[in-house]
Request: fold
Amino acid sequence: MTTNDKRKFIRINSLNLSYVLVDGEGDADRQTMGRTLDVSEAGIRLETHLPVEIGRHLMLSVGLEDDVVDIKGHVVHAGKNKHGKYELGIELLEPDEAAREILKKFIKAFRQQRGSAV
Reply:
């Protein structure tokens, strides 16, 4: 069986509280709370009550274990799920080295906890 998954990084299913600030591009910025559904070094799938259009830029503050990571990203996928909430595929934009290291540490610890090879 072949797969068409083009991701460079492994995504882990992880529910983490997130604060989301949506760039209003001339309008007032919008803000909401959300939660991550999965996380990788390059992107996040986020669930929120607020619809956000593809292409919009976001600033996320994500709680990962004992750390809070501030990350810029933009929406590459958006849709409503069966529970009436919005799921956003977010590509991370140039996370700084500290944020990238926290993401790596979190993913590594999660995989070790689950018994996966690192």
